[in-house]
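Below is how a single chain appears once it has passed through the pipeline. First comes the sequence as given, then the structure the pipeline wrote out for it. We keep one example in the README because the format questions we get most often are answered faster by looking than by reading.
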Amino acid sequence: MSTLKKKSKIYSVMSQKGGVGKTTLAINLAVQSTLQGNKALIIDIDPQASATTWGDIRDSNAKYPLVISSFAARLSNVIQAAQQNNINEIFIDTPPHSQRDAQIAAEISDKIVIPCRPNLFDLHAIDNTIGLAQIAGKPFVIVFNAIHHTSSLSIEAKEAISNKYKDNIDICPYMIVQRLCYVHAITSGQGVQEYEPKGKAMLEIGHVYKYINKHEDK
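Resulting structure:
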């Protein structure tokens, strides 16, 4: 367990299953944090380095969020350096299929954000990620992602998880709809808030960001 003296809010965006939109969510939450006036940082410990690639193509005039590619074993060092440079919100983009790295990130985080698509495979896989959060003793919130706007699957998925975990679960009431603007924004080095400043996706991310911050009074 890390002995870091916390000065920043630290969130791990985590899923032990790939293809759930983890990196896209981490990026857009970090952009939203920046728009809220924070000095935000994305720490990319996923070997695919998708968040790092996004940072590389981002407009050099957009100072925040910063993006740093690192390893789980160096998270404490990177976070200490970030805190010394007045970074006050950190989003860790974790790798799928790597329980050890995810556990290190979970232990150093204040909260774990778990994206989940409303389908059978994702709902089964989410147990592993919830287990990591519980072992670390950290609060976590599930965010349903890539929802089809005409589908009722998100409601059914929410009921299935709620019934399984009873009252010991936090599910974000705001869901992220599958929209092309998320893809276009990422490929242009932007958040959806910057790509479509008056779009519905901007509102979605804003609501999700506000919700995951709801009990973070630091």
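The longest strand covers residues 111-116.

See the next section for the split statistics.
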